[in-house]
Amino acid sequence: TAKKTYLRNEIDCSFNEIIKVIxxxxxxxxxxxxxxxxEKLLPLADQKKHLDGYTxxxxxxxxxxxxxxxxxxxxxxxxxHKQLQHKIEDEIEKFKSVDLTPVEVPNIYVQxxxxxxxxxxxxxxxxxxxxxEHLKCTAEGAGTERAETNMPANLTIHMQDxxxxxxxxxxxxxxxxxxxxxxxxxxxxxxxxxxxxxxxMRGRHKLxxxxxxxxxxxxxxxxxxxxxxxxxxxxVQIIDGIDNPWSxxxxxxxxxxxxxxxxxxxxxxxxxxxxxxxxxxxxxHPVGIDVDEDGSILVASLASAQLMKFNEDWTxxxxxxxxxxxxxxxxxxxxxxxxxxxxxxxxxxxxxxxxQVFNRDLEYVLSFGKKGSxxxxxxxxxxxxxxxxxxxxxxxxxxxxxxxxxxxxxxxxIFDNLNGPLCIHISGxxxxxxxxxxxxxLTTTNGKHVTSFGELDIPKGITTDADGFIYVCNMRKxxxxxx
Length: 483
Fold this sequence. Notes:
By secondary structure, the chain is of the alpha+beta class. It is built from two helices and 36 strands. The radius of gyration is 34 Å and the shape is elongated. The two termini are 64 Å apart.
């Protein structure tokens, strides 16, 4: 009974919080709609002022004529008549120059970005309210979502009705450098308009589509532009003076986090200029680093045989590990990576030839692998990465290969014929592997070699940012090289 009462009270509290948020959203929505309605009615109000002004002038003219005809002499009346004719002609000309066509007031479309499935989260998440105007036409096609640099991307704009005279504009703007690409009209039949564009800059973009200067439904569209591996070549940036970098990750705020082995610290760098920014901490010989979606940072310390978890402000949250071969112990700990699906932490325990898995509280979950060269066996695993469904790709330095496992460690396939691979990163459908003095690119599906690039000296860590730029720790040259 007590438990039922407690649960009922909890439900009542949650329900009241939901109602409160909905009421706040309603008030915000009404305020926004009223402001937008006032904005749209402003042109009509200006026209009304013009008409009121002319009405006042005409009334003054009538009063003047009426007074003159009652009190003036014959000569004064004739003079007033002439003045009246000139005045009427002047006012008619002025009146003709005023555009009294009513200004169109577009329909106001109100969209509350909250579905029924999300109602349960309303007490924790702020509902977004968007007020916009749009025409009844849509856009579809690969070009509204994804494209590749230097390759044409297509999209089709559908009109609800046949429009013989219509002005359509589609403009792609880069979030990286602000550059703009205008889409070209390739063909149309009055209802369907085919456009194409050819982006030059990789990364995140906004595609704005307007018809008769009004945005269509969904505009602007979020478009990501991939940079195909075969277009990679010379670096776009080199950050010098980085002392013996071993591992690299991107923080939640977008900074580079670099594990410096010799300096026994992790530093935060501005990824555009390579300058040190606030953040980072002292860690004895750090060799691995990754960032969780909540901003917390994981660091693997080789010297202390520990996995450390820091809060986003770099306060130490938890630590696990010491030298050994038991669960939760490490021998030559290397990289740590976070699964995008389970959000568990996978650690390369190189000396024990295994991968250990921990939950977010750094509690041991499972391990897989043992020394050997057969399927399912490992020999000196140095790094790992995940595909979109959580499969694990493990780099084996001694076996010169990549081995693919299921999220729980079931072996799937081996990609071999590599030359001393050290580190790995997955972006889209490609594996980026540091080996020897270069980076090799393989497909995630069958390990087929796509291309190799770079002139590096012991490349250690590798990662990509949200715009697809590749960051490599060029260890012996004390550099971060950007492709």
